[in-house]
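Researcher: Next entry in the queue.
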Amino acid sequence: MPAALITTTAFRGLAESERATKGVPELPLIVIDHPLGGVALDTVARRALQTLEALEVAARTRPLRPVQPA
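Model: Structure for this entry, 70 residues:
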């Protein structure tokens, strides 16, 4: 079953460390801009759409590198 780890730029290092610690360094990592709180609703909606698109790519291709939303 395809899976990916979604994180923000502020927690990218932690997410990469957790992938390695849990033994799944190849797990796709989707990194979105931080913060999510305190920003305009349209910004959150845009980031959510970008994240969904990146998740779709990750599910189909299983990249070995982090996927940066467009």
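Model: The mean pLDDT is 88.
Researcher: Noted, moving on.
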